Automatic annotation (TrEMBL):
PROSITE patterns noted in UniProt: MOSC
InterPro entries: MoCF_Sase_C, MOCOS_middle, Pyrv_Knase-like_insert_dom_sf
Name used for this protein in its record: MOSC domain-containing protein
PANTHER family in UniProt: MITOCHONDRIAL AMIDOXIME REDUCING COMPONENT 1, MOLYBDOPTERIN COFACTOR SULFURASE MOSC
GO molecular function: catalytic activity; molybdenum ion binding; pyridoxal phosphate binding
MOSC domain ranges (all copies): 127-267
Superkingdom field: Bacteria
Length: 273
């Protein structure tokens, strides 16, 4: 089996908006630094997602000099920027799937900007530093915590898995359809399904649950256009128990820096059937 190396690192500071590609990232107890630390919520406190609001794909996020900036991919004149630590101090109960958590409102100006863009009442919240949203106990090992991500601190996909999918598609898709944190090269397609645990640097990761994919994968992250692919093709060969699986959700032990080029050192493999 050939060696495996980290080829891409991605964070998505505001849940369901455009991501950032990094060469190096700090791993914290709830995932990569800044990953899904902010989230848009509706008037009822429920998270707002590309699954229903395709236009969110057109908003690119960047972080520089202690500020977070959101820019429209097609119209850079449409943008807003705020300090990473900016909040009104107002705590708001929020809902992410079946989880209840807490968010700190960022600012009324930011709320107004997003409300105007989406043409619906939304607010932007930041996860408090002391918030402890737990990973699903059925898959946790030691009361691990998670940000505003769907359920797990990190998601990993192999480049070979995407290449295998694109070999079946008329129009290839980019990896950003699947919004991974970690991408690696080497091995056969879906080798990540066989991981039990692996190291990146000094951090031990456990692959605890395959990632079930949804309509978000059918949204072109460059145009915001929605189609049927790649979900339709994936369903033909990656359906297990009525769920379409692509990638592995991870939990981890330890903190530290991880970098593109780091070797994945697999320590345990799932038993073969």
């Amino acid at each position: 089996m050939n060696e495996l190396y980290l080829s891409e690192l991605h964070i998505y500071p505001i849940k369901s908006l455009g991501g950032m590609s990094l060469q190096q990232a700090q791993l914290t107890d709830r995932g990569l630094k800044y990953d899904r630390r902010w989230m848009l919520i509706d008037a009822g406190g429920t998270f707002v997602t590309q699954r229903k609001h395709f236009e969110l794909a057109m908003l690119q996020v960047s972080i520089n000099d202690g500020r977070l900036t959101v820019t429209h991919k097609k119209d850079p004149a449409v943008h807003i920027s705020f300090s990473l630590d900016e909040t009104t101090g107002i705590s708001i109960p929020v809902n992410i799937w079946d989880d209840q958590s807490t968010g700190l409102e960022v600012s009324t100006l930011v709320n107004e900007w997003f409300t105007d863009f989406m043409q619906m009442d939304v607010r932007l919240v930041q996860m408090p530093a002391d918030e402890r949203r737990l990973v699903d106990p059925r898959y946790a090992e030691d009361n691990e915590i998670v940000s505003f991500a769907d359920g797990y601190p990190c998601l990993i996909i192999s480049q070979a898995s995407l290449d295998g999918l694109n070999g079946k598609l008329t129009d290839p898709v980019r990896m950003d359809r699947f919004r991974p944190n970690l991408v690696f090269t080497g091995g056969e397609p879906h080798i990540e399904d066989k991981f039990t645990s692996f190291y990146l640097g000094d951090t031990l990761f456990s692959a605890v649950k395959p990632c079930a994919r949804c309509v978000l994968t059918t949204i072109d992250q460059q145009t915001g256009a929605k189609g049927q692919e790649p979900l339709k093709t994936l369903a033909g060969y990656r359906t297990v128990g009525k769920k379409v699986l692509f990638g592995q959700n991870l939990i981890h032990k330890g903190k530290g820096l991880i970098s593109v080029g780091d070797q994945l050192r697999v320590t345990d493999w799932k038993p073969t059937a």
